[in-house]
Amino acid sequence: MRITLRSFAALDILSLVFLGMQLWVKVENYAYLSTAKLSEKIQAILLLPIFIIMAIGVIGLISGKKFGLILYYIQFPFRLYLYIFSVGFITFIPEALGLFEDVWFDSLLKLCFVAEFIRLYLTVKIQLSLPE
Length: 132
Hints:
Layout: H1 2-28, H2 38-63, H3 66-82, H4 93-97, H5 102-129
Helix pairs in contact: 1-2, 2-3, 3-5
């Protein structure tokens, strides 16, 4: 159980790195947001709070506290909306290998969705097994 929580924390740290890069791009292009679509504005507004909540959640997961699991439940719908997946880095594999075909990205994105729901299931099982 502890290994699983620390694995989730490690994946979240990797997600925080990628999210930090996205956040930096949004900050640099802040003037562009005034002409952006509503969905892009919502995405830009949600990036900072989800970054902060994920960072606090990582601390909770590393220490094995319940608040880390509860913060994941809060993050879950926003992670799906913002495409911040625990294993989201695998969508970069085709780019790293030089395979620039659309079929790879779509397949790997679906795999990321499935992996995120598996993580949710495992998180619920871990929380239920924790002592009160």
